[in-house]
Amino acid sequence: MALTMCSRYSPRKQTQNTKLFSKSLLTWFSFFVFNLCLASQLFAQAQVPELSLLPWQLIGVDNEFVSRNGKKIQALHSQLQQSVLSTPQPLDLWMEAQGRTLPLNLKHSLHPILSGKSLGGLPASTYIVPILCRIGDRIIVATELVSLKDNFLLSAKQQFTAREAWEGDSPAPLTIGAAWGQGLVSAIRQEDAEAPAFKVDLSLLRSSHNSIDGTHQCLNMLLAHELQKTMMVPTPLDLLEGYRLRQNLIPDSAPKRSTRTFLLDWGQNPTSNKLVALVIASESVMSSQMTPRGPVSFEIKPEENRIVVPDTFMKMLTDYRSQLLTKDKPQVAKVYGAWAYLDRGRAWGLDMNDRVYFEDGGRFVKGHVVGFYGSGLNLKSPRGFAIQEGAIVFIRKGQREVKVGDSFDFDPTAYPTPFPPVRQPAKAN
What is the pTM of this model? Predict the structure, then answer.
């Protein structure tokens, strides 16, 4: 252990200072620090509530509407709480019961979040976002079940209501009962084993200070709820409460990065059932421009409480998804001297200095990733699609043996090579 308080460039002073601590004291101190780190790690892993319920997220509704319907909105939140949570309590009190000491400002920000055990088989380490937003004369009540670890949607449910139905002293035009929570459970999307790397992110072209931004956010939310049924989609709402949850409950979590980004502009007055949105698509790693880059038609069906995605848009997403299947190994699209250009890159799972190799027909080739490239090279994969983002591999062995169409695999050899040396996996037999 480095317990000296003088320069590391003075070995003599270091030797003198280490004499201040006996070997037994250093041993016990090291043991104490090790156990303290282990205990903190176990605490961080264990102390996470099964389910948290955020307060209402109000999008595009004015303050007068909220003040007139405050009791109705609070009643819906209480109904949702009873349908999904068992013995809930404010998150700050829950964390203090686990032995955490919180600053006063953090206590105030976490107090509106309710946490506890889930009802109906909801997965652990998740949170629910209740949303109230407006599209024209409609008020949409929605709930999102979000993974706490990576901020991706697991399921969603919404219901359209008429704005006039909220006026007056009549009760809220809908109720949230046990069936609502069961609907969230039944709609949970199963993990995609073939293309876990394919993730779609939705954002807006218009600035956030636009007066109709709330309606645009609501439409993006409906589109995200429709897409998450078949693919991984992060919640399109940038939630401060969700960020606080991850920072305080899972501080070492790293939200997954999306691989395709779609910017949408829903127009000046998106109130009708048939909408034409301007869509700009890009690849998320290198920001390479992609199709579509123009108008796309959508249709809102209030009787079905959803937005209809056109078949052409879904087919395009399916084609992009097929380009990131984990079962498809990276193939060589171009050979330039000692460098091989692969049709898979960072979005697929490759990283800098990853070792790759293949052995086929007496050829043994190995190399490592030295960089990435985008669509500017206009390369086409041997599989037939235009490469939006790929990796560049420097071939260390078998440079003249590489051909277009060769498939590389990950080399599990440890780096740097341990002693005694371990043979390459392809030659271990």
Answer: 0.81
